[in-house]
Amino acid sequence: MISRYSLSPMKEIWTQEAQYERWLEVELALIKTYEELGIAPQNSYKNAKKNSKIDVEEILKIESEVRHDVIAFIKSVTENMNDEARYFHMGLTSSDVIDTALSLAMKQSLELIIDKLNEFIKVLKILAKKYKNTITLGRTHGIHAEPTSFGLKWLSYLSEAERNRERLEKTLEDISQGKLSGAVGNYANIDPSVEKKVLEKLSLMPCKISTQIVPRDIHAEFLYNLSLLGAGIERIALEIRHLQRSEVQEAFEPFTKGQRGSSAMPHKKNPIISERLCGMARLLRSNADAAAENIALWHERDISHSSIERIIIPDSCLIAFYMLEKVTWMVEGIDVKEDQMIEQFKRSYNLVFSQRVMLTLVSKGFSREDAYKLTQKVALECWNSKKDFKEEIKKVNDDEHYFSKNEIEDIFNPTYFLKNISKIYERFNFEDEE
Amino acid sequence: MISRYSLSPMKEIWTQEAQYERWLEVELALIKTYEELGIAPQNSYKNAKKNSKIDVEEILKIESEVRHDVIAFIKSVTENMNDEARYFHMGLTSSDVIDTALSLAMKQSLELIIDKLNEFIKVLKILAKKYKNTITLGRTHGIHAEPTSFGLKWLSYLSEAERNRERLEKTLEDISQGKLSGAVGNYANIDPSVEKKVLEKLSLMPCKISTQIVPRDIHAEFLYNLSLLGAGIERIALEIRHLQRSEVQEAFEPFTKGQRGSSAMPHKKNPIISERLCGMARLLRSNADAAAENIALWHERDISHSSIERIIIPDSCLIAFYMLEKVTWMVEGIDVKEDQMIEQFKRSYNLVFSQRVMLTLVSKGFSREDAYKLTQKVALECWNSKKDFKEEIKKVNDDEHYFSKNEIEDIFNPTYFLKNISKIYERFNFEDEE
Amino acid sequence: MISRYSLSPMKEIWTQEAQYERWLEVELALIKTYEELGIAPQNSYKNAKKNSKIDVEEILKIESEVRHDVIAFIKSVTENMNDEARYFHMGLTSSDVIDTALSLAMKQSLELIIDKLNEFIKVLKILAKKYKNTITLGRTHGIHAEPTSFGLKWLSYLSEAERNRERLEKTLEDISQGKLSGAVGNYANIDPSVEKKVLEKLSLMPCKISTQIVPRDIHAEFLYNLSLLGAGIERIALEIRHLQRSEVQEAFEPFTKGQRGSSAMPHKKNPIISERLCGMARLLRSNADAAAENIALWHERDISHSSIERIIIPDSCLIAFYMLEKVTWMVEGIDVKEDQMIEQFKRSYNLVFSQRVMLTLVSKGFSREDAYKLTQKVALECWNSKKDFKEEIKKVNDDEHYFSKNEIEDIFNPTYFLKNISKIYERFNFEDEE
Amino acid sequence: MISRYSLSPMKEIWTQEAQYERWLEVELALIKTYEELGIAPQNSYKNAKKNSKIDVEEILKIESEVRHDVIAFIKSVTENMNDEARYFHMGLTSSDVIDTALSLAMKQSLELIIDKLNEFIKVLKILAKKYKNTITLGRTHGIHAEPTSFGLKWLSYLSEAERNRERLEKTLEDISQGKLSGAVGNYANIDPSVEKKVLEKLSLMPCKISTQIVPRDIHAEFLYNLSLLGAGIERIALEIRHLQRSEVQEAFEPFTKGQRGSSAMPHKKNPIISERLCGMARLLRSNADAAAENIALWHERDISHSSIERIIIPDSCLIAFYMLEKVTWMVEGIDVKEDQMIEQFKRSYNLVFSQRVMLTLVSKGFSREDAYKLTQKVALECWNSKKDFKEEIKKVNDDEHYFSKNEIEDIFNPTYFLKNISKIYERFNFEDEE
Predict the structure, then answer these.
(1) pLDDT of the residue at D434
(2) Distances (CA, A) of B39 to B188, B318, D358, D361, D365
(3) Interface contact flag, A279 D65, Cβ < 8 Å
(4) Of A35, A63, A87, at which residue does a domain stop?
């Protein structure tokens, strides 16, 4: 991933050095296990830990000769070891180390992502509560539909974010699996009990069954669920982009101090963060698609998945983390224009209330047919001549022929449409966050 | 493909019957060739043609027994033949027939698509010319940017459509390849000269080299270029969806007589065709992605590509054809609101002219710094208080302190921004269509 | 989906008629609810049920005029109704019906898929048990690696199938959500309690919050998990294709009576089902990829997802079902050649035992260096001269210099590599299936 | 892209510094143009060039404040300029610089890729010629089919590589387009003649029409065609993986001196480069899929494409270049085992000749029915009892009942199958490379 989108602490997980450290962590857990089992002599672990060293440059140099990353690693890292070196990597196959360490990295990454997601969820709850009673126009097909609560949008994003959290928590469990089952997964040179002990030390579970590697549907699930997380963020970002349009202006991304869209045109505040997030969702999607091609490997494993995983797994972790960071910042600082939301009703001449006019007429005894005809006539006139529907209804009604003045105000009162939303809010738990 | 999106004459290409007819076409071209070469006796072709029959039900019934589609086909189609049956399929392998016939189907489909695309290009030219001098707001990031010509949008779509036509014409050549090179592509049982003569009759070229089948990068290229065509249509559809938004209302999809978005709300005209087209572009994209997995087959062929090709190739042809049909209809009948485009400038308080105010001040001798400060002060006031920038500039200027009245009108005249567009139009050929 | 790959009872779920029946099911559940709540008079439900009719042709004819599928449906289906028609669709928006009915269809489909998957899992268990002690060569990178148990392959597929079942069961819950929350999801014209009662009758839960529609991350999750299921089947199919290679011949797809790969060449049994399944996995993948583009819709919904969902959702259900049917059949009838598996060791000259030779030498007191040199010398000679490693070791050893005769037999006994596999089997539950 | 897969000189194109240098190149071409047109005073270009500096750290530091990359760039790069700074960026919008420079980078990258591809094509020609008469088994479905020439495989890859070269050469033309048409593509602040002159200096053409940016179907075409290139390499890599299988051993990737697959097992040469290339093809595919989502942008541009393009465009260039480097190396050093190819016929008991036996019987006057029965009987016996078909035919024939001895040798001579391959080779031009 380019440095522009690599944020701490996620980026520290995916350095070359951190990878070697995780390999070492696995190897040391093995020596500790051997010591506990009486296979390695006392202090083997202590000495191995003390005498191991990670020298990235050196390892890469050796690798360029032997063309095998784990052999290069072992050679370099054990250089200063004494007898304890005998137990280093003993009974393991390279993939035992690599794949277990990859699970560790994915687990750590996912924990960071879930933490960030929890922060984001808190912010979404705040917005959902804050705008519960804020009237805005609901739009379907991009067309004004019915008044609704601005808070419901945030409640909807909250609900999706909670679904994504649930998916990722499930995935966190699934990815917390390592394997020390040998070259073809049959434990020919290592006992399952050793695997269990080693993985316990790493807070991982053993795969119920592995080949040379951890099965790749698990990694695909991981990237699929990051893709869903990204699409959930994209949905919010797309909404902001729409609300910030020059013709809408109902909400704006926070504008950093010193930032300028255009020198002379103050309206030129571009929703660049939201746009950036939309682009990034595409990457999470396509990386996930690629990961699904890595599942069907040959026999007890082929290594075709490896080259692409070196790219897409870190990249998707980094991008997902970046997206959460930015969307949280953006939503937290969002500049909402409640007046403008009301103003917006005029763009469709208050015609969003036409159905209520008609239904009120019906409730007053008009036949549906007559009510419809009357309403439709006025509505069409407003649409064609760009006149305000409320004003035209008042004109038609000027002797209170159909409605009392109060009734008119009531009909055109958008809060009517919020009457049931508390029942939606009650389905969510707002307590725990306070 | 579901019948809802299957239009004639494209759908007739992809029936089971049409497939068998193409197989027969290949087989008859072979007999004719054998007759020409003196291998088959005179009248073999005539008799084979006369005595062949296609009975879809019967073929499928036989296939369910023998589990081989070409064997079933041959058995049924030659049932009423006499001696000429000896030369039917002689020297061929099943894939010679299937793959050559598939090329025929793709070629026919692509010809239909290019025809439709040509019609569409004509309509785009008409719109580009018609709206050449129609002022509209150019928008970047969804934010008002600079006035521009509404015709330029159509010229841009035209240009993309022409690029897609060029791509598809290249692909038409590439797909016009068949093969009669036998089971592994070595012509062990058939001479290359026979292949050449047969394919000539079918207006196809021989593959320079084939395996058991025509190489699949060609089919992937086909679907990739249909995907680009779809994305070009998506771009237009997305524009219409934006222009039809309740807050924009600058252009509308045609509304069929009798169609109703909503019974009482006449503003509820939903851009459903444009939305449908956007969804369909996603299918063309994902089908193309799948096709690229079909290229790397095992050795002289494995048949894993076949099951998915039976679905994605017809589906992408049908959808591309449907999209062209609909987008042409939509663009042809588009309801453009030129007044509304001018009205739109007010949504950003005519601030799109602020740069011209500043530059005019500079041209009058103001330092850039002073010009900027003056303009920015007024502009910010307008933005914050929702005042019209032109009116505020007039106020500041009320003694013609900075500008003459004519100058003000000139500054706020959006046609300034169209001064160079003829030079763009000149790059396109509008002659040939008239 | 083409009829070739559409199997009962899945295909009956996705007919046009079945869709209208589900719509009617939703509408009738509403009338019943109204009746229960005293809103509609007694017997409304009974009469509505009795007087409703579904006439697909008529509905489609009306739709072609009014260009609205639900309006056409209502008009046709209520034609013979009396007063109860007043309560038909009352308070609903079209998407309440469409999206709730879509959830029903996806739920029914997923139930069928899970049933099939359960059958498949049973078959996998049988194979895993049957071949527990069957020696075969484990291969990594396509190269002989270490002896292993043929049963472990099936246990590995079983484990993946169980993970996929778990995913799909979770998805079944997630997809069992409907919505009757109106045009923008705010229940302006219907009470949440009505939604609850109606959905209960349909065995669905209400969405915690909906827009005009059920949120689309749920549908993407559905297709993502079908894609993982497909990739799991692809993994098995790919294995069969490898095992059936002419050079391997360790296992064969069942060959139907009467089926012929080639008339004269009996070895020409092609693994066509496996190949077909591999192709189909690509479709599930690309459909899933497309579904993820449907999540970020505009505001309270745009309808761009609809066109593509009409295709990819039924297609993925049909293909997943087909794949399960075929893979179960294939695995159930698999023709395993245990002798050939042993024969295979000769292809790499029994060199897979070289490590055991070396380790045995070490255990006898040889330095690792010396043991390595000795083994390596013989091994290289075998590799270069295509000699059998066991025989060459015997020669080197002819005076029992290094090993006793029994030791040699022991070293070259592949069952050694199975010593720990019972511990893997113990992790699985084989009881419940008997 | 990770450094592991970033090779010179491609990686130098995609550094941050190189990007700024290309931006400067565009800006300087503008000043030169202004000077030529008499708009800027003499020596403006010379001075601007002399006084410009690129300080990556400084630019990034400024960007972190102003949040606009081009503004930061201009500020830093012009710091030491005098009057000539007035003409720097004059009349341009940021995207004029960014997008034109991106085209330059893609053009340079594609030129490198085409150069590498030409080298690869030379190597493919060498192999095609070298193995023209090498007998090998053609395989379909992974099953032995018919003898063929090993050279035909390479000729087939050559042909695909040539198609990919043709596609990339077309794309090179298409991508060689820049734009200096201003904020919405209407040349309001710059004349098309200036654009033309500037782009000429950069060896680019002006877009026929642009919005704020170069249209994105061109970038998608670029990535689509890199994806096809990748799939072509994947096809070769997949073949090598198959040929190197322990059961096949017909060809091997070059094994670097010092490289070891396994310490004791010399047969453990893993085709790791080929496997790596297969994985990388997946990345090119998914990046291309993502690029196609970037085409339909809002109005005169939205910037959602930018974040993802910063990743996928360099990554796909780097990976494509890496793949070509490696596949060329691999193919050049391939270790072909011609003897083993002949040996292979025994794996299917020489049954690949059964059809020739049957056809020879027919040519000798046997009815097709009788010939078939006889052949089939022997063939089945061989298949079931693992006997050699040639030997069994000899037995049946022991009194030369059916064939003379010479005829038998002729029937079982695989060179028969190569009789027409010269005609395929003649379609290719081998002259120009020598």
Answers:
(1) 46
(2) 17, 41, 21, 20, 18
(3) no
(4) A87
What amino acid is encoded at A381 in this protein?
A: E
Interface test with B, best of A136, A139, A140, A143 (most B CBs within 10 A): A143
- Let me know whether B170 and B313 are in one domain: yes
Distance of CA D9 to the CA centre of its chain: 17
Give D-chain residues touching B231 at CB under 8 angstroms: 217, 220, 292, 295-296
Assigned domain for B421 exists: no
Number of A:D CB contacts under 8 A? 116
Domain count, chain B: 3
Please check whether residues C42 and C151 belong to one and the same domain.
no
How far is B276 from chain C, CA to nearest CA, in Å? 5
Q: Which residues of B are annotated as catalytic?
A: 141, 262
Q: Is A193 a catalytic residue?
A: no
Whether the CB-CB separation of B292 and D228 falls below 8 Å is answered with yes
Running DSSP on this structure, what letter comes out for residue A420? T
Inter-CA distances, C179 with A36, A426, C90, C176, C203, Å: 58, 17, 15, 10, 12
Please give the Cα distance from C29 to C182 (Å, whole number).
Answer: 16
Of D146, D186, D242, the CB nearest to B298: D242
> Quick one: A356 and A340 in the same domain?
no
Contacts of C1 in chain B (CB under 8 A): 311
Indicate if D242 and D151 belong to the same structural domain.
yes
pLDDT in tens, chain D (434 residues): 899 999 999 999 999 999 999 999 999 999 999 999 999 999 999 999 999 999 999 999 999 888 889 999 999 999 999 999 999 999 999 999 999 999 999 999 999 999 999 999 999 999 999 999 999 999 999 999 999 999 999 999 999 999 999 999 999 999 999 999 999 999 999 999 999 999 999 999 999 999 999 999 999 999 999 999 999 999 999 999 999 999 999 999 998 766 666 666 777 889 999 999 999 999 999 999 999 999 999 999 999 999 999 999 999 999 999 999 999 999 999 999 999 999 999 999 999 999 899 889 988 988 888 888 899 899 989 998 999 999 999 999 888 889 999 999 999 999 999 999 999 999 999 976 54
Interchain pair A281, C296: CB under 8 A: yes
Distances (CA, A) of A273 to A233, A423, B38, B227: 11, 34, 74, 28
Structural domain boundaries, residue D136 = 94-344
Taking contacts as CB-CB distances below 8 angstroms, the residues of chain A near C140 are 183-184, 212, 299-303
D79 with D103, same domain: the answer is no
Contacts of B383 in chain A (CB under 8 A): 266-267
* Residue B142 belongs to some domain of the structure: yes
As given in the structure block, the two tokens for residue C400 are 């029992």
Report CB contact under 8 Å: C187, A211.
no
User: A61: domain CATH number?
Assistant: 1.10.275.10
Tell me, what CATH number does C132's domain have?
Answer: 1.20.200.10
Domain boundary among D320, D344, D368: D344
Looking at the structure, tell me whether residues C212 and C321 fall in a common domain.
yes
CATH code of residue B397: 1.10.40.30
Structure tokens at C18: 């079945």
CA A263 to chain centre: 35
Chains touching chain B, criterion 3+ CB pairs below 8 Å: A, C, D
Q: Does residue D83 share a domain with residue D99?
A: no
Do D136 and D157 reside in the same domain of the chain?
yes
Asked whether the beta carbons of C100 and C178 are under 8 A apart, the reply is yes
CB contact under 8 A, D265 and C355: yes
ipTM for the complex? 0.96
Burial class of residue B400 (count of CB atoms within 10 Å of its CB; 0-12, 13-18, 19+): exposed
For residue C136, tell me if it sits in a domain. yes
* A422 located within any domain: no
pLDDT tier, C432 (very low <50, low <70, confident <90, very high otherwise): low
